[in-house]
Amino acid sequence: MNIKTRKKLKEIYRYFLGIPKTIYFNFKYFKIKDAIKLPVIVSHKVKFDNLSGKIELKKIKPAIVRIGFGTVENYDFKYSRTVLDIQGKIIFNGKAKIGYGSRLSVQGILEIGDKFQISAESTIICRKSVSFGNNNLISWENIIMDTDHHHIYNSEGVKINEDREILIGDNVWIGCRNIVLKGT
């Protein structure tokens, strides 16, 4: 068996292992008529930290969104996993792939354009608003966050470090190991 065939079989096997989480996720978030189409495919290596938020899909097609798939050479599939903490709202405007080991923590509104891909081990932390246009590629080990994770107050007791939105347009490539902060 050649290397290409072996990789394809391994990928199919990983999709197969994700069937229980895929079914759970789709029937949790979508009406039955949409859920049976399995528009979101979820890897068995995805941890559901919190799924109390909302998911909106602008297009309902089988496997239009894939969570926990897609890797780079330095990814350790055995020990890493994708983590979802969805307390806010995620809007998918088309095809999207969230890579192995990535982490999404959403309490605000995360909007993802069509043809979006985030590679392995990247993090998006959204407390207010993070928006991606169409045709975006985010490489590995990036951090995108619209918050400081702490409060800073001036001498009058007024908070001076409010969360601020991040807006990334169309056709953007963010290379590996970048940090994109609030107000970008």
Which terms summarize this structure?
single chain; 184 residues; alpha/beta; 32% strand
Q: Any idea what the shape is? A: globular
* Total E-strand runs: 17
**Radius of gyration, whole Å:** 17 Å
- Biggest sheet strand order reads 1-4-7-10-13-16
Question: Could you please describe the fold and organization of this structure?
Answer:
With 184 residues, the chain is an alpha/beta fold. Helix content is 16%, strand content 32%. It is built from three helices and 17 strands. It has helices spanning 3-17, 19-29, 32-35; strands spanning 40-42, 46-50, 54-57, 65-67, 82-86, 89-92, 96-98, 103-106, 109-112, 116-118, 123-126, 129-132, 136-138, 143-145, 166-168, 173-174, 179-180. Strands 1-4-7-10-13-16 form a six-stranded parallel beta sheet. A six-stranded parallel beta sheet has the order 2-5-8-11-14-17, with no helix packed on it. The radius of gyration is 17 Å and the shape is globular. The mean pLDDT is 93.
In short:
By secondary structure, the protein is of the alpha/beta class. It has helices at 3-17, 19-29, 32-35, and strands spanning 40-42, 46-50, 54-57, 65-67, 82-86, 89-92, 96-98, 103-106, 109-112, 116-118, 123-126, 129-132, 136-138, 143-145, 166-168, 173-174, 179-180.
How are the secondary structure elements laid out?
Blueprint: H1 3-17, H2 19-29, H3 32-35, E1 40-42, E2 46-50, E3 54-57, E4 65-67, E5 82-86, E6 89-92, E7 96-98, E8 103-106, E9 109-112, E10 116-118, E11 123-126, E12 129-132, E13 136-138, E14 143-145, E15 166-168, E16 173-174, E17 179-180
Parallel strand pairs: 1-4, 2-5, 3-6, 4-7, 5-8, 6-9, 7-10, 8-11, 9-12, 10-13, 11-14, 12-15, 13-16, 14-17
